[in-house]
Fold this sequence. Notes:
By secondary structure, the protein is an alpha/beta fold. The chain has six helices and six strands. It is globular and about 55 Å long.
Amino acid sequence: MSYACGALFLDRDGTINIEREYLADPAQLELLPGAAEAIAAANRAHVPVIVVTNQSGVARGMFPESRIAEIHRRLDQLLAEQGASIDAYYYCPHHPKSASAVYRVDCECRKPRAGMLYAAASQHGLDLQESVMIGDKPSDLGIGRFAGCQTILVRTGYGHETEQQLPAAVPSLIGRFDSLLPAVEFWLHARSDKARSAA
């Protein structure tokens, strides 16, 4: 199936905001340096910015599912203060070993499975092959690879540990950067160059 345009898919914790394991309090949300600037650059380029995040803290009983929306509202506020915005959020609250029958699901939406990307593509008319997935964990690279996206690793969050686990060459991985801003700038420039060459 062919869609109209590509998107910038972003992991949340450790990529946009400082990694706090099982973030449960909106007041503890803190943007990483340059993250808002990176997202604003994509906004100016009219590229959809979509967050895809595993939130197994719900399945583990650490916070209610409603807390995720509260955290995303806070994230929207912090980004808006710097002229940036997220177009859509997708999250997975499940875990196959959850004590809760409601959340004990071996689902297709938990990264590295690609259910969230497929849902976003279907609902927003996106071409996954023209999209990129940026994150700091192996599961972020995995979801992008499985969905047919390009992938980029950032060294924030768990990125340094992830990089040490990677072989020299990784299918779909087009870059490794210290943070989100240079990663997004690199992808936007490559995207622009490709569009010019195709014109």
